[in-house]
Write a structure and sequence with these properties.
- With 165 residues, the chain is mostly helical.
- It has one domain: Up-down Bundle (Ferritin), CATH 1.20.1260.
- Helices cover 77% and strands 0% of the residues.
- It starts with a helix and ends in a 7-residue tail after the last helix.
- The protein binds MU-OXO-diiron.
- MU-OXO-diiron binds next to α1, α2 and α3.
Length: 165
């Protein structure tokens, strides 16, 4: 059985993952408006992947006999300055999520909740991948700078992203 501190913290994480999905969907919308359909598709898949993260925590809370409370999801921003700005903000967001996961692990250790600690290890590894993949896109967008031809080639490449896990 989950203790109330872990239950509350994991419920917040469900909300945070749903917000991540909402944020990336909004980014996908912006990118589509810029005619960067490949990047829009990449971000849409990222939004779907965040839903699977939310459901992983949701299912875990149930598996431990806990109770899920769904709270309001904050409205995400709708406008950015460029594709680079979008991916920089996504990278900053993932760094925030990594901190949240680390705090959850700290709490699981403090509460001697080994099952939660074990479940959270998946998220620890996932955050390394999330940060790495978005950071590499940021770095390549910086290299491209203002060269439209190169941006269109990269957009096509981003559009080839395989289906979300
Ligand atoms: Fe669910 Fe991108 O962290």
């Amino acid at each position: 059985m989950l203790n109330s501190k872990l239950q509350e913290a994991l419920n917040k994480q469900v909300n945070a993952e749903l917000y991540s999905s909402y944020l990336y969907l909004s980014m996908s919308n912006y990118l589509a408006q810029q005619n960067l359909n490949g990047a829009a598709s990449w971000m849409r898949m990222q939004a779907q992947e965040e839903l699977t993260h939310a459901m992983k925590v949701f299912d875990y809370i149930h598996a431990r006999g806990g109770s899920v409370t769904l709270t309001a999801i904050e409205q995400p921003p709708a406008e950015w300055n460029s594709a680079l700005d979008v991916f920089e903000k996504a990278y900053e967001h993932e760094q925030k999520v990594t901190k949240m996961i680390n705090h959850l692990v700290d709490l699981a250790i403090a509460e001697k909740d080994h099952a939660s600690h074990n479940m959270l290890q998946w998220f620890i590894s996932e955050q390394v991948e999330e940060e790495e993949s978005i950071k590499s896109i940021v770095e390549r967008l910086k290299l491209i700078s203002n060269a439209p031809g190169a941006l269109l080639i990269m957009d096509k490449e981003l559009g080839m992203r395989a289906q979300a896990k």
